[in-house]
Amino acid sequence: MTFWALQCFYHQDSSSVGGSMCFGVYLPPQASRGKVPALLFLAGFSCSEETLAIKAGAQRYVAEHGIAIVTPDTSPRGEGVVDEPDAWDVRIGAGF
Fold first, then answer.
1. Which one-letter DSSP state was computed for residue 60?
2. CB 69 within 8 A of CB 26
3. 45 φ, ψ to 5°?
4. Which of 16, 41, 80, 89 has its Cβ near the most Cβ atoms within 10 Å?
5. How far apart are CA 70 and CA 25, in angstroms?
6. pLDDT for 17-57, tens place per residue?
């Protein structure tokens, strides 16, 4: 019997930041048979919702243990972000 795993990325409008916020969801193979616990992973200063999936290789570990991962981007990005600093060298989402 074959079971699937799924890595997806989503975005939603956020009234609190005045723009779109993104997040990733990884569902391990065990999720095809029922509920699994979820780990919320808050990335560091210059990371996005994709960083854990691309660089960490965490899917292999959580797949073995039947854990889902939710990875929100913790920094609003793009033009016109509310309370964006005026400093040229420090930008929203650490976009140097």
1. H
2. yes
3. -55, -45
4. 41
5. 5
6. 677 788 889 999 999 999 999 999 887 767 778 888 878 78
Per-residue pLDDT tens digits for 59-93 = 888 999 999 999 888 776 666 655 555 655 555 55
Q: What angle do CA 29, 34, 38 make, to 5 degrees?
A: 70
Round to whole Å and give the CA distance between 74 and 30: 27
Strand 38-40 with 19-27, pairing: unpaired
User: Which residue's structure tokens are 């993104």?
Assistant: 22
d(CA 20, CA 33): 32
Partners of 83 in the beta sheet?
none
How far is 62 from 38, CA to CA, in rounded Å?
10
Q: Report the DSSP beta bridge partners of residue 39.
A: 69
Helix (H, G, I), strand (E, B) or coil at 13: strand
**What is the pTM assigned to this prediction?**
0.72
CB of 27 within 8 A of CB of 59? no
